[in-house]
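Homework-ish question, so no full write-ups if that breaks the rules, but can someone show me the predicted structure for this set?
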Amino acid sequence: MRKIKEFIIEKLILLAGIASIFFVAMIFLFLLKEGLAVFKVETPFKFLFGKSWYPISEPPQLGILPLILGSLLVTFGAAVISVPIGVGCAVYIAEIAPAGLKETLKAGIELLAAIPSVVLGFIGMVTLVPLVKNIFHLPTGLTALSGSIMLAFMATPTIVSIAEDALYSIPKNYKEGALALGATQWQTIWRVMLPAASSGILAAVMLGIGRVIGETMAVMMITGNAAVIPHSIFVPVRTLTATIAAEMGEAVVGSEHYFALFAIGIVLFVISFAINVTADLILHRRKF
Amino acid sequence: MVNPVKNTFEIKDLDIRFGPVHAIKQISMDIPANEILSIIGPSNSGKTTFLRTLNRLSDLYPDFKIDGRILFEEKDIGWLDVETLRRKIGMVFALPLPLPLSIFDNVAYGPRMQGVKNKKELAEKVEEALMQGHLWDEVKDRLGESAFKLSGGQQQRLCIARTLAVGPKVILFDEPCSGLDPISTAKIEDSMIKLKENYTIVLVTNNVKQAARVGDKTAFFLGGELIEMDRTEKIFTAPKDNRTDDYIRGKFG
Amino acid sequence: MRAAWIKNPYMTQRLAFLLLLVSTLLIVIPVGMIVVIIAWKGIPAINWQFLSDIPRQGMRSGGIFPAIVGTIYLVLGAISFALPIGLLAAIYLSEYSKDNILTRLIKLSIVNLAGVPSVVYGLFGLALFVVFFKLGASILSGSLTLGIMILPIIITTSREALESVPNSFREVSLSLGASKWQTIRHIVLPNAIPGILTGTILGLGRAAGETAPILFTVAAFYLPQLPKSIFDQAMALPYHLYVISTQVPNVDEKIRCGTALVLLALVLFMNLIAIIIRYKFRKKKKW
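A: Not a homework solution, just the prediction itself:
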């Protein structure tokens, strides 16, 4: 009797284990189901590289290049800011901060990671956007720059925590060997530890960027939502994610607009898939 | 509990590999009932692997390949239900390993898993097991306390009592005194000798002198092979193989 | 000789360390500032009426009670779905899985689920629950969508908690004749509960704060009554904050900040509890 119960439980456990694969497959399948339909009206090439996004005009123009460039611009800007700061902070926490401070800092970073993106978007709207407008004398502060700054902020906890793990897992004798040869702490960090942790740091950066590309609410609230090709970072842009969030409410189920938004979803899914799988491979390839 | 079978274990041509490692090479032996068999040998000679194969803890190893035959009370251990087998063949490990439970719950764990729910029955089993393990007097007033509060020697005797509570026929000891002080060691060796009246005991030990004190028979393992096995007095006074002699004298290992 | 001090490695070190400290401060200080600003401007709005009243005058006054209730329903719904499946999946990975392709695939899938953008979850929820299963925009759709989204968190933290239980306990249990499942149920699981609890609370915090997955699956702009069943739409705090910040003009800043404060406090509180549990557990571990 007990054996029968256990048999059932163990089968359920196996099912639950496989569930993750099932869910990923389902997400991809449903995205495809609704998204591929857009390619009846638009070729993939024109979809991906078309310069005009006017989904509600007649006939709808469904080129997502402005959106791709918007995402890329904001992401690139965020990376430029968050990578040095994030890695720097990771180094500080891992190598230089005294023990008590270390735990507090780590908890602080964890709390930052927990702040909902809508709250950060709200704060950005209220403080950062007017600031950018005034400092750079722009017609509006809702720009790619504001988005980059805020997203840099959101990416740093990811970068810090994974980079810090990477530094922490370097065998102690690397560090001790360098110090024993007379190197200063900084020289040891710069020439020995950072190179040794480089693959982990790379993975950290990739995952941070992955987070940024997938970010929706904060960008929606502070980048301005202009679906045109940006010419600088001081103008409003529209990202892939914000497009979906902003327009799905208006799109009629089953219309080309609807399918196009799902097609954007496919693009996002593929990008995040690529980034996450690569970062995971990097993280798990090197084991001391 | 008198065993009707003459040899508790009959092992023939046992051969074990873990992937590329050839851990046990063609070992054959009979382990008689109600005696203590000491197994000695340097580390990595296969003693622990051998012991764990007897109660099929070896099933947990990945890449485990086994050839040959092990009979427990004249039945092939591969055919028996593994949970029943493990209740009949108990094991005491090298470090005292109390479960993170109270003293009472530690000893009662085996019977509970077997399905015993009656509180009175459990209490009786616990008391009897602790008595047989020579721990009852020391803990009878604090059965509800955490097992971690006991000293190392007491914890190990708790582990013995825990094994006894399940009602085994065999007790396997895997270097049980390696973490203990001499007094606790002596108490445990004492327990083993008293226990053999009712149980078959197999002891793996790194301590050659312990093997001499306690074992009725002694087996010497080296590099996965059984070099020699005989009555303890013979092994220690006139071993047949030079390697046995060298090991006993401390020339290696 | 005079320029040599610039090349002195100790000067370089000092400079470098200063830069690193600045990097850290650049992150930590704004965090503090954010919390302070929201608290400063939001606390004046917090009173019992704000928390218990429904919104009035198109969100410009009144309270946020339906949004709080909606968030609670969604979070409970999400965890009812994610915890059983996530825990069982974690048990599979920790106790049953072998080193083979299937396991590699499962782990890869979990990494992927963790990385999918939240708005894509929204699309998925829309396509599967709202449209395909015809559940419509409802608490059920929203909870299921959020549930799948927090599944990776639950699985990963639970798996770590299970794996941290020493193997020796499992061996002892098995050697006493217990079955594998009995060992898990009576020895492994009870000792992994603090870690599992931590993960669950972190998952709850995440579910409470997410907007994009609920945009198309459940969130309603203005509902004068509380939802009566899981098939109803609901308001939710994150969506409410978004709407009163961007769609409704002339909302008193106090109210916006008050809403943000409630949401922030809720999420940070949950995370803090999780951190505390984790910390206390590490200190109390008996083995």
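Now go work out the reasoning yourself. Hint: Chain B touches chain C at residues 55, 57, 60, 62, 83-84, 86-87, 90-91, 93, 95, 97, 99-100, 109-110, 113-114, 146, 148, 159, 162-163, 166 (CB under 8 Å).
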